[in-house]
Design a protein that fits this description.
The chain has 744 residues and is of the alpha+beta class. Among the domains are: 94 residues, Herpes Virus-1 (2-Layer Sandwich); 77 residues, no CATH class; 232 residues, Hect, E3 ligase catalytic domains (Hect, E3 ligase catalytic domain fold); 106 residues, Hect, E3 ligase catalytic fold. The chain is built from 26 helices and 22 strands. A hairpin with a 6-residue loop joins β7 and β8. Pfam families: HECT, PHD_G2E3, zf-HC5HC2H.
Length: 744
């Protein structure tokens, strides 16, 4: 029988788990081992999760991982009466869930005997006789292939230590490799290493006993993990450096400022050492000039730079190559880079733009004074507002196509994608019909609240698409390669759904990367992808190894290490000089980001042609970029105030003043409701659709007792009160209770 240690002899390092009786500290196998002096016990996380007679009855911060101490004591006492069928010792807290099977065992013993533990739902455990197995076709068994994680051979056998991907026919893994991958990637990034499928892959791996932690990837949690990559190249490489302080000396805004090569970014010069009067002048290193000279492209390159200068009124807009970013930056992470010019040229097209126009994950931050930063931020907001106003008018023109004939879609909130797909593919569906949404798992929804239901449907649908296996990346996403989705024509359906959402009053996606947007608008052949467009960590690391090779031997070694990948991508070629790496990196990026997904991209483009959306995108790229590559503007009191037209039926009342004062209180956090709650109460939508509201939102002051939100007319009917306090109390009571009742 396992007893809890006494306080006076509690040894944390050598303490044993109260459920399995072992002192092993192996997080990969048994979960985190934690000792709690205040409770006089030590426990493995997995032992606690899988024990059959205990449930998580407390909150996360109560007891141990939400398991109450009294419950743990009861479970220890219960297990003390049971004998392990493997080691024959007492304390077997885990039992096989198969009916009539009476086998019990410790968690480590179960691992040793190849039992299956499912870390999901009811946390079921299966003994070695009743455990789930993967079914293999006769032609699949036998033979061997590479494990796509460790690249060692894995036998095609129905064995415990071998797992097959449910979404790819020829993808096999070692169980141990998959478990390490899951612990590292976490629930957000753990997916098939071949086709990038997430949902189907995770479901099968959980069924087969792989533990997937509900946290961000390990590379996102490590502080300053990419700090070394933020260093810009700062060294003068000209034959005769004239700087007395040395080749590494760099003094900004002087003749001793280091300018990097505009083509490769891996060579530099002091301005004075190359007789440059201004940092705005172009400069290329000897290696790049020789390449252009041999290929005959040097004169063309020179003409292009002059043409660009003319477009910008004689001011050359050069984007100095920034230090590379993480392949998958975590949301909210900040990467700052110094630019040589207050203007930059967008990497994927030739139109000049300010640095703040770029989407979140593609943005290059400038080191400016607070005054300049605030001014640019204000300009950016102004530009975005103008462009969103422009796109609103364009979408209203497209909405004229929508007729009054209705098409009803039966939607299950819990399975939004499947039910939406079924609705869009039904015979009588037409994008020009008015869409009516009926939520099948919502009994009390009002029949007249069609616009609210429609907006909620499109909002859920856009959220699903953003997190689906059709896209990859963190905040700014590109298309991924999902062979099953290509086979089922899902990329076309995704494009069609986005087009219909934009025209029918749903939200815009807001998660397109600049590269994806430019491929759709200008064509993939006219787009140059960047390293940050690569979502696959291994591919990104391969590109970085090649890109930052500092000698010919290290470059050749890096190419040799990944020669199979390069050959499969059609990028393998002999290198004779270090500068060859730039063309190689460019080829890999074009293959991985564009050529690899050319079939999904074309299907997606065809879907976006619905209702003429793609054509308008190509005619007005700046306007549509504001809604497809940027998240909607956060609501403010001013935005809500400007949105509504006030009609008063009683002269000289203070209602309008009370309304504006109330919006200020809500916006500053002095209220129990939010601005989104107010908009939802009135219109059924918590955000402003890209096409705007139809009809235009209005406010009426009437002699009524409580506020009324008429979602059919987008009209807010407000009571006339004597004091602001009465007005605020009535607003908060009504809005809070109405929304609470709807949620319930």
């Amino acid at each position: 029988e396992f007893r809890m240690s006494k306080p006076n002899n509690f040894d944390i390092q050598n303490s044993f788990c109260v459920l399995c009786g072992r002192t092993d500290d192996c997080p990969e196998k048994y979960g985190e081992k934690k000792s709690y002096v205040e409770y006089n016990l030590t426990v493995h996380y997995y032992c606690l999760l899988m024990s059959s007679g205990i449930w998580q009855r407390g909150e996360e911060d109560e007891g141990i991982y939400g398991f109450l101490i009294t419950d743990i004591r009861k479970e220890v006492n219960r297990a003390a009466k049971l004998t392990c069928n493997i080691c024959k010792k007492k304390g077997a807290s885990i039992g096989c869930v198969t009916p009539k099977c009476k086998r019990s065992y410790h968690f480590p013993c179960g691992i040793q005997r190849e039992c299956i533990f499912q870390f999901m739902e009811d946390f079921r455990s299966y003994c070695w006789e009743h455990k789930p197995v993967q079914t293999l076709m006769d032609k699949e068994s036998g033979g061997a292939s590479q494990c796509t994680i460790c690249l060692d051979l894995v036998d095609h056998l129905p064995a415990y230590n071998v797992l097959k991907s449910p979404c790819c026919k020829n993808a096999w893994f070692h169980r141990e490799c998959l478990q390490y991958q899951a612990l590292s990637a976490g629930i957000f990034f753990f997916r098939c290493t071949v086709c990038n499928n997430k949902d189907k892959f995770q479901k099968e791996m959980l069924r087969m006993g792989i533990y997937i932690p509900e946290r961000d990837a390990s590379w996102e949690l490590e502080e300053n993990a990419y700090q070394d990559l933020l260093q810009c190249y700062q060294h003068c490489d000209v034959k005769r450096c004239r700087c007395k302080e040395g080749r590494d000396y760099n003094e900004p805004d002087s003749k001793w400022e280091i300018k990097r090569c505009q083509s490769c970014g891996s060579r530099g010069t002091h301005l004075a050492c190359s007789s440059m009067k201004s940092r705005e002048e172009n400069w290329e290193c000897v290696e790049c000039r020789s390449i252009f000279a041999k290929s005959g492209k040097y004169s063309k390159q020179k003409k292009r730079s002059w043409a660009t200068s003319e477009k910008t009124n004689g001011t050359t807009c050069l984007l100095e190559e920034p230090s590379p970013k993480s392949a998958r930056p975590s949301s909210g992470s900040q990467r700052s880079f110094l630019l040589q010019s207050p203007k930059i040229m967008c990497q994927n097209n030739l139109s000049p733009c300010t640095h703040l126009e770029r989407p979140a994950s593609n943005r290059v931050m400038m080191a400016l004074s607070p005054l300049m930063s605030h001014r640019n931020w204000s300009q950016r907001q102004k530009h975005l507002k103008e462009r969103r106003r422009e796109v609103r008018n364009i979408l209203k023109e497209l909405k004229v196509q929508v007729n009054t004939k209705t098409t009803r879609l039966n939607i299950n909130r819990e399975n939004i994608w499947t039910s939406a797909l079924k609705g869009f593919r039904q015979r009588n569906f037409s994008p020009t019909n008015t869409i009516e949404i009926h939520f099948t798992n919502c009994k009390n929804r009002s029949k007249t609240d069609t616009s609210a239901s429609r907006h909620q449907f499109f909002q859920l649908l856009m959220l699903h698409l953003q997190n689906s296996s059709l896209f990859e990346g963190s905040s700014a996403k590109n298309l991924s390669l999902d062979f099953q989705a290509v086979k089922e024509n899902l990329y076309f359906e995704a494009g069609r759904m986005i087009a219909v959402s934009l025209v029918h009053g749903g939200p815009s996606p807001g998660f397109f990367s600049k590269t994806l947007f430019n491929c759709l608008v200008y064509g993939p052949e006219n787009v140059k992808p960047a390293l940050e467009d690569v979502a696959d960590v291994d591919v990104a690391q391969t590109i970085k190894t090649i890109k930052y090779a500092n000698s010919l031997s290290s470059l050749q070694s890096a190419i040799h290490d990944c020669c199979e990948f390069l050959a499969a991508a059609g990028c393998l070629r002999p290198v004779t000089a270090l500068c060859d790496k730039n063309m190689l990196v460019n080829d890999i990026l074009i293959h991985h980001v564009i050529k690899r997904i050319i079939s999904p991209l074309e299907s997606f483009r065809q879907g976006l042609k619905t209702l003429g959306v793609l054509e308008k995108m190509q005619m007005h790229p700046d306007a549509f970029s504001s809604i497809l590559c940027h998240k909607p503007e956060r609501l403010s009191a001013e935005i809500i105030c400007d949105l509504f037209t006030i009609h008063s039926s009683v002269r000289e009342n203070k209602g309008a003043d009370f309304w504006m004062a109330y919006l200020q209180d809500v916006g500053s956090g002095e209220s129990v409701v939010t601005l989104e709650d107010i908009l939802l109460f009135i219109t059924g939508s918590s955000s402003i659709p890209s096409v705007g509201f139809d009809p235009e939102p209005t406010i009426k002051f009437l002699r009524i007792k409580y506020p009324v939100g008429n979602r059919l007319l987008n009209c807010l009917e407000l009571p006339i009160t004597k004091t602001y306090k009465q007005f605020k109390n009535k607003m908060e009571l009504t809005i809070r209770n109405t929304l609470r009742a709807e949620r319930e």
